[in-house]
Specification:
single chain; alpha/beta; signal; YbaP-like; globular; 13 helices; TraB/GumN family protein; TraB/PrgY/GumN_fam; 6 strands
């Protein structure tokens, strides 16, 4: 599943909760990235998710469902249910920038027979257009936001506390911070990524192919622009979320066990959250498919 460079479309599906909250359920024999972290006398279950899905994603594997049922709190990247999405779009998503000639020509070609899709997107910033194209393309393949893992867990969390590791505004601001060149590249990736690659991404997540998921994130030859994008969207956020989870586990009266769900791209590889915790003295990190964690 190696690729010469990371697909920006795939990065969005694996990383961004607030923007790519589609939806899906995982079958009982699926093995998405799932870890148990023991630190400072507390336990955290860490699930790597995709933010789109299908009804047959659920119920998830028994040990995931069991860990979630006994958790004292749910931690997510961003709780979109509490966000003023329209306000955030007005603040971060309406910055129109001109496309270069090549990008403009390709977009015009794509939209020639899709005016009902493309015309409503014209007022929005390129990154917003890219995310919407991505949503629509995955929907055409049968994957919808309403079945996203994060959204499904939030919907059945009950009265337990919900903790944001970031926020929806943080994610909007992050996307808006990229240069026009990178944003328009996101648009091209969103409309040109092959269907089979998009389906392969979901299959890798369901089968627990962590090496394949990591390859989608990092690739083998990163362009300078992509390196900036991956550093800001993945590596820096891994550091920040590891620190936030660690601080929650250090609280004497903090919830335990804690159930954390983040995009799968944050969980895999040598710079993922489990790897970051493994660097901390006195921490035990278990891959729950190699050793049963319950």
């Amino acid at each position: 599943m190696a690729t010469s460079r990371p697909r920006l479309l795939n990065i969005g599906i694996l990383l961004l909760t607030g923007i790519m909250s589609l939806g899906a359920m995982a079958a009982g024999d699926d093995k998405p990235p799932f870890y148990k972290i023991t630190y400072q006398g507390k336990q955290t279950y860490l699930l790597g998710s995709v933010h789109i899905g299908q009804a047959d994603f659920y119920p998830m594997a028994e040990q995931i469902e069991s860990a979630f049922a006994k958790a004292g709190a749910l931690a997510v990247e961003a709780d979109t249910n509490k966000a003023d999405i329209m306000g955030l779009i007005r603040k971060y998503g309406l910055n129109q920038v001109a496309a270069d000639a090549k990008t403009k020509a390709r977009l015009e070609e794509y939209c020639r027979t899709r005016s009902e899709i493309c015309t409503p997107m014209q007022p929005y910033a390129p990154w917003m257009q890219a995310m919407q194209f991505s949503v629509m393309r995955f929907a055409s393949l049968g994957y919808q936001a309403k079945w996203g893992v994060d959204q499904m867990l939030l919907s059945k969390n009950g009265s337990r506390p919900v903790i944001e590791l970031e926020s929806t505004e943080y994610q909007f601001k992050l996307m808006a911070s990229f240069s026009p060149q990178i944003q328009w590249e996101m648009v091209l990736e969103a409309i040109d990524a092959p269907d089979e690659e998009m389906v392969q991404l979901i299959k890798a997540w369901r089968s627990g192919d962590e090496a394949g998921l990591d390859a989608l994130m990092q690739g083998q030859m990163l362009h300078d622009g992509d390196k900036e994008l991956i550093d800001k969207m993945l590596w820096q956020r891994n550091e920040q979320m590891t620190a936030k989870i660690g601080s929650l586990m250090m609280q004497q009266d903090g919830p335990s066990p804690l159930f954390v769900v983040v995009g799968a791209g944050h969980v895999v590889g040598d710079k993922g959250i489990p790897a970051k915790f493994a660097e901390l003295e006195g921490t035990k990190v278990q891959n729950c498919w190699q050793t049963t964690c319950n």
